């Protein structure tokens, strides 16, 4: 009997398909979305760079200058805003991740109806949640009048507690959905197989569950951190007068000076955008590492 060559058992590739044909077709399908992203984000980015180095001077001929950047970096308010934005992004994202991990572990064995109810906050706009929080939790709000007074300040608290609570409420269900997507029957069978082989519950969690949920949890947490870092509407409504976030710092700069403030505002927003881009590249590297 002739020995079958393993190479002959490989399925023949479709006639006429080149090695990079699949990758090229994927790029073509993504091209409309890429063009929209490049035009919207790229155009705004170019405009912000131009504004930060060439602020309008009341109709006079503008010259390239880094005065806006120097003024921003020499302003203590900018460094306070950068520190406050970083603090909010870290606390909100890590708190959301921890709660989401516990909630997903509990919800995975529950019915679809309960999972649907838990995911409802994902569809609610951040601005609406912030407005409701102000109506209920602000001094003189509905809860304040009903209870006499709240034990702690939430809205406009210097710690940013109101901002953090809104983002935890909004982003936790988002992370839960990511985790539930990988906590399906396949993971359940792996857990059962590990238990049959003598693994303890702690070993099952460490060797089976955590490797499965680690990458989506980390990627989702980084997405939340990037979003919170550059957010504007929730800090504007619920945040303290000082310190501001980077986005509210940019808004206040335009209010303080209609001319020179434009350059400082653009520079501070570029810092926020740069941080988001760095986080985005880190997410891409993490995703590719998981695929490899």
Could you characterize what this model shows?
The protein is mostly helical and 292 residues long. The protein has a single domain, classed as MetI-like fold (Orthogonal Bundle), CATH 1.10.3720.10. Helix content is 72%, strand content 0%. The protein has helices spanning 21-53, 67-73, 76-107, 112-118, 126-137, 142-147, 161-182, 185-196, 201-229, 233-238, 246-256, 260-291.
**Average pLDDT across residues?**
82
CATH architecture descriptor: Orthogonal Bundle
Cα Rg: 25 Å
- What would you call the structural class? mainly alpha
Count of β-strands? 0
Distance from N terminus to C terminus (CA atoms, Å) equals 39 Å
Strand content: under 5%
| Alpha plus pi helix count | 12
Poorly predicted ranges? 1-17
String of helices and strands: HHHHHHHHHHHH
User: What is the CATH fold-level name?
Assistant: MetI-like fold
Oligomer: single chain
Overall tally of domains: 1
Estimate percent helicity: over 70%
Question: Layout of helices and strands, plus pairs?
Answer:
Blueprint: H1 21-53, H2 67-73, H3 76-107, H4 112-118, H5 126-137, H6 142-147, H7 161-182, H8 185-196, H9 201-229, H10 233-238, H11 246-256, H12 260-291
């Amino acid at each position: 009997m002739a020995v079958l060559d393993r190479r002959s058992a490989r399925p023949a590739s479709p006639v006429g398909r080149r090695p990079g044909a699949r990758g090229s077709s994927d790029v073509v399908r993504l091209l409309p979305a890429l063009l929209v992203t490049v035009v919207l984000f790229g155009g705004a980015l170019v405009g912000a760079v131009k504004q930060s180095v060439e602020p309008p001077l009341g109709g006079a001929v503008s010259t390239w200058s880094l005065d806006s950047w120097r003024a921003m970096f020499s302003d203590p308010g900018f460094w306070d805003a950068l520190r406050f934005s970083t603090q909010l992004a870290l606390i909100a994202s890590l708190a959301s991740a921890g709660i989401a991990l516990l909630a997903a572990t509990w919800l995975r064995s529950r019915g679809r109806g309960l999972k649907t109810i838990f995911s409802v906050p994902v569809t609610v706009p951040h601005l609406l949640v912030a407005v409701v929080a102000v109506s209920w939790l602000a001094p003189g709000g509905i809860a304040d009048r009903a209870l006499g007074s709240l034990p702690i300040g939430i809205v406009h608290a210097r710690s940013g507690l109101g901002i953090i609570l809104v983002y935890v409420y909004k982003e936790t269900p988002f992370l839960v959905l990511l985790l539930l997507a990988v906590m399906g029957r396949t993971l359940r069978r792996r857990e059962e197989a590990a238990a049959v082989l003598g693994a303890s519950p702690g070993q099952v969690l460490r060797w089976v569950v955590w490797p499965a949920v680690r990458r989506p949890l980390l990627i989702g947490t980084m997405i939340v951190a990037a979003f919170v870092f550059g957010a504007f509407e929730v800090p504007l409504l619920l945040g303290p007068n000082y310190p501001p976030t980077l986005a509210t710092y940019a808004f206040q700069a335009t209010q303080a000076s209609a001319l020179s403030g434009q350059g400082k505002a653009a520079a501070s927003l570029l810092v926020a955008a740069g941080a988001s881009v760095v986080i985005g590249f880190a997410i891409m590297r993490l995703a590719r590492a998981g695929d490899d």
